[in-house]
């Protein structure tokens, strides 16, 4: 296979990989295709694939249209997957504004807010509120880390929903919990 054919095969593979998972970074794409990060950047530009932040924003904007119980301003993190009544996923990049004073550790309420808003977003209702939560912080999250929160509806009985949340950084669990969310519009007389 000549140089031109190799490049065309690599560009096709890059396009397919990003289509299957738009959240791969340039470094992850480089490792998968066995080339340098610079080559990935040049290839992305050539075939019009935006950088991972823009791809994440595009996916989040599309998923936000499906959420019934929250507005885009109420969701903490970027919603990357949603199947109403079943499961959801969001990503939160820890920025300097989220850190404890004189520390590189994120304040816990950001992890809680990401998990709580995801738990409410997964409920198939126009008005949903959290009545109870049981959470566990497993390890501190640091500046620059991306927290991936996954929600799963483990039980739905009438208006009551039990949502399990597991938040990870590089597949290491950093936060977990159960949220008891009530779909207010499914309660008679409310």
Name some characteristics of this structure.
single chain, 190 residues, alpha+beta, Arc Repressor Mutant, subunit A, Thiol Ester Dehydrase, Chain A, 6-stranded antiparallel β-sheet, 5 helices, 34% helix, lipid metabolism
Explain what this protein looks like in three dimensions.
The protein has 190 residues and is α+β, with helices and mostly antiparallel strands. The chain folds into 2 domains: 61 residues, Arc Repressor Mutant, subunit A, CATH 1.10.10.10; 117 residues, Hotdog Thioesterase (Thiol Ester Dehydrase, Chain A), CATH 3.10.129. Helices cover 34% and strands 30% of the residues. The chain is built from 5 helices and 6 strands. Strands 1-2-4-5-6-3 form a 6-stranded antiparallel β-sheet. Helix 2 packs across helix 3. The chain is globular. The termini are far apart. This is Transcription factor FapR. One of its GO terms (biological process) is fatty acid biosynthetic process.
In brief, what are we looking at here?
The chain has helices spanning 3-20, 26-33, 37-47, 52-64, 108-122, and strands spanning 78-83, 87-93, 128-137, 146-157, 160-169, 172-183. It is α+β, with helices and mostly antiparallel strands.
The third-level CATH topology of the largest domain is Thiol Ester Dehydrase, Chain A
CATH H-level superfamily of the largest domain = Hotdog Thioesterase
Structural class of the secondary structure composition? alpha+beta
DSSP helical segment count: 5
Number of strands: 6
**What's the quaternary structure here?**
single chain
CATH domain class name of the largest domain? Alpha Beta
User: How confident overall, as mean pLDDT?
Assistant: 90
If classified by CATH, what would the architecture of the largest domain be?
A: Roll
The side-by-side strand order for the widest beta sheet comes to 1-2-4-5-6-3
């Amino acid at each position: 296979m000549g140089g031109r054919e190799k490049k065309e095969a690599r560009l096709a593979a890059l396009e397919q990989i990003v289509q299957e998972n738009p959240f791969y970074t340039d470094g992850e794409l480089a490792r998968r295709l066995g080339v340098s990060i610079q080559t990935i950047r040049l290839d992305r530009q050539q075939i019009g694939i935006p950088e991972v932040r823009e791809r994440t924003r595009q996916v989040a904007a599309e998923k936000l249209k499906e959420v019934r119980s929250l507005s885009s301003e109420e969701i903490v993190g970027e919603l990357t997957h949603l199947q109403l009544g079943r499961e959801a996923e969001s990503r939160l990049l820890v920025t300097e504004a989220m850190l404890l004073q004189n520390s590189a550790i994120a304040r816990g309420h950001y992890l809680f807010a990401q998990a709580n808003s995801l738990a409410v977003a997964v409920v198939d209702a126009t008005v949903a509120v959290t009545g109870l939560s049981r959470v566990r912080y497993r390890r501190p999250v640091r500046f620059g880390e991306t927290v991936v929160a996954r929600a799963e509806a483990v039980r739905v009985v009438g208006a009551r929903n039990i949502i399990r949340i597991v938040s990870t950084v590089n597949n290491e669990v950093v936060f977990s919990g159960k949220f008891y969310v009530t779909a207010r519009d499914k309660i008679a007389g409310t």
